[in-house]
């Protein structure tokens, strides 16, 4: 998997129409603080602008393409319908008449699968330390979307990408602190000379 690819889960319910094989849910929610990460993350409205027409997005069960594909939207066309509204990225597809599609429907109906997830890369983000001491990451622009997945477990996956982002923020804070100390000592030294 691409080292920069990240995976996030959305606890917003994924549903199945009991009269058909239609599965739908929200893969991501805008302006909703994350949970389960060592920092808070928010995806801004507008972060997906222009992303869907250039992405080849698969609907997978638990992000596992080796098990098979549930649906696909290749640059906006295909059996996977993706739409962006004020809440976030919504997906919809007809579960295929395959063992994987049947497994998905059975586990949705039993309540074993109740949330969604998505895999993506980031083009633009900012990191900041909040007044309460916690770190906040704001994703302003998603570079590419790879998959949307109904998942069994809504725990956030960790990647080296946001580890690097936190490391960069902490290094910047250390440099700022060192510069502040140098300025402070220079002022004291000037005072006594």
Could you tell me the mean pLDDT? 83
Share of helical residues: 10-25%
Any low-confidence stretches, pLDDT <50, length ≥5?
156-162
Question: What is the terminal-to-terminal distance?
Answer: 60 Å
Strand content: 35-45%
> How many strands appear in the DSSP assignment?
11
Global morphology: elongated
- Domains, number: 1
List the quaternary state of the chains: single chain
The structure class reads alpha+beta
Order of helices and strands: EEEEEEEEEHEEH
Number of helices: 2
> Radius of gyration in whole Å, from Cα?
21 Å
User: What characterizes the major β-sheet?
Assistant: 7 strands, mixed
Structure description:
With 193 residues, the protein is α+β, with helices and mostly antiparallel strands. 23% of the residues lie in helices and 37% in strands. It has one domain. It has helices at 99-110, 160-192, and strands spanning 6-10, 15-16, 22-29, 40-43, 56-59, 71-74, 77-78, 81-84, 88-94, 115-129, 135-151. Mean pLDDT is 83; it is low at 156-162.
Quick gist of this model?
The protein has 193 residues and is of the alpha+beta class.
Main attributes of the structure:
193 residues; alpha+beta; 7-stranded mixed beta sheet; 4-stranded antiparallel beta sheet; 2 helices; 11 strands; 37% strand; elongated
List the SSEs and their pairings.
Blueprint: E1 6-10, E2 15-16, E3 22-29, E4 40-43, E5 56-59, E6 71-74, E7 77-78, E8 81-84, E9 88-94, H1 99-110, E10 115-129, E11 135-151, H2 160-192
Parallel strand pairs: 4-11, 5-11
Antiparallel strand pairs: 1-10, 2-3, 3-9, 5-6, 6-7, 8-9, 10-11
């Amino acid at each position: 998997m691409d080292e920069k690819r990240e995976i996030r889960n959305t606890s917003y319910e994924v549903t199945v129409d009991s009269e058909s094989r239609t599965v739908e849910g929200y893969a991501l929610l805008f302006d909703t603080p994350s949970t389960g990460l060592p920092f808070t993350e928010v995806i801004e409205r507008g972060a997906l602008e222009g992303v869907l027409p250039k992405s080849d997005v698969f609907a997978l069960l638990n992000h596992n393409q080796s098990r098979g594909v549930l649906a696909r939207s290749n640059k906006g066309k295909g059996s996977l319908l993706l739409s962006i509204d004020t809440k976030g990225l919504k997906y919809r597809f007809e579960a295929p008449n395959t063992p994987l599609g049947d497994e998905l429907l059975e586990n949705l109906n039993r309540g074993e699968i109740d949330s969604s997830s998505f895999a993506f890369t980031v083009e633009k983000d900012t990191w900041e330390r909040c007044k309460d001491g916690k770190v906040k990451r704001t994703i302003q622009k998603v570079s590419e979307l790879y998959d949307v997945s109904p998942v069994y477990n809504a725990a956030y996956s960790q990647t080296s990408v946001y580890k690097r982002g936190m490391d960069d923020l902490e290094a910047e804070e250390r440099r700022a602190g060192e510069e502040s100390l140098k300025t402070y000592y220079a002022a004291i030294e000037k005072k006594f000379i």
